[in-house]
């Protein structure tokens, strides 16, 4: 299993710091787990392969392109810093 951990500062609260961990088995496109923490609380969830396909369809985006964008936003870290915004609600 592969994992990444990134520090994010959401646009909804730029002074706050959150930590986003993403874990996956073979490829992000086959589904992944997420853990979001503010240092005091943590929230976890999973995203299935079917949910990824459904979201790509909803966005009218090629599935492979959508998975590449997910990789950039969720696991690329410093190389994508400033290119993606996160909002916590």
Concise structural overview:
This protein is of the alpha+beta class. Helices cover 25% and strands 31% of the residues.
Describe the protein in words.
- There is one protein chain.
- The protein is α+β, with helices and mostly antiparallel strands and 89 residues long.
- It has a single domain, classed as Beta Complex (Dna Repair Protein Xrcc4, Chain: A, domain 1), CATH 2.170.210.
- 25% of the residues lie in helices and 31% in strands.
- A four-stranded antiparallel β-sheet has the order 1-2-3-4.
- Strand 2 and strand 3 form a beta hairpin.
- The longest helix has 12 residues.
- The radius of gyration is 13 Å and the shape is globular.
- The N and C termini lie far apart (29 Å).
Strand content: 25-35%
The radius of gyration over CA amounts to 13 Å
Please report the first level of CATH classification, the CATH class: Mainly Beta
Report the CATH superfamily.
Answer: DNA double-strand break repair and VJ recombination XRCC4, N-terminal
Number of strands: 4
- The appropriate CATH architecture is Beta Complex
Overall mean pLDDT: 90
- Supply the helix-strand structural class: alpha+beta
**Which shape, going by the Cα principal axes?**
globular
Pfam families: XRCC4
Main location: nucleus
Coiled coil: 49-76
Keywords: Coiled coil, DNA damage, DNA repair, Nucleus
């Amino acid at each position: 299993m592969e994992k990444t951990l990134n520090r994010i500062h959401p646009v909804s609260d730029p002074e706050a710091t959150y930590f986003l961990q993403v874990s996956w088995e073979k490829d992000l496109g086959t589904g992944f787990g997420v853990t979001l923490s503010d240092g005091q609380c943590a929230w976890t969830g999973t995203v299935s392969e079917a949910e990824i396909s459904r979201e790509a369809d909803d966005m009218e985006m090629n599935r492979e392109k959508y998975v590449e964008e997910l990789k950039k936003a969720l696991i690329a870290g410093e190389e994508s810093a400033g290119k993606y915004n996160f909002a916590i609600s």
